[in-house]
Design a protein that fits this description.
The chain is mainly α. The chain has one domain: Alpha Horseshoe (Serine Threonine Protein Phosphatase 5, Tetratricopeptide repeat), CATH 1.25.40.10. The chain has six helices and no strands. Helix 3 packs antiparallel against helix 4 and helix 5 packs antiparallel against helix 6. The longest helix is centred in the last third of the chain and has 16 residues. It starts with a helix and ends with a helix.
Amino acid sequence: MDKGIQLYKNLKKTQLNQYNFSNEGELNSLGYKFLQNHKIDSAIKIFSLNISEFPNSANVYDSRGEAYFNKKEYLTSRKDYQKVLELEPTNQNAKEMLSKIEEILKKK
């Protein structure tokens, strides 16, 4: 995984004209492929890379929040969903996920 991330960074520096690095969609799709295959840690690494590339996108925080939720790391997930609302205050999914997380944390 780390070699793949390094390759991405190298391609971005050296092959900018041959690949589309202009939006978070490609990395997000890759992260979800890992998530769907139950490779949550790999998904989190990809989503974290996406956040470093697109720190003002609510979508990338939402995606990582989902991965942390699936990993049952609810406090970290909550931080990501709070960031979603900071960037996009009307995001309904983030509001719903924060409610779910609060219910889970109350039971602990």
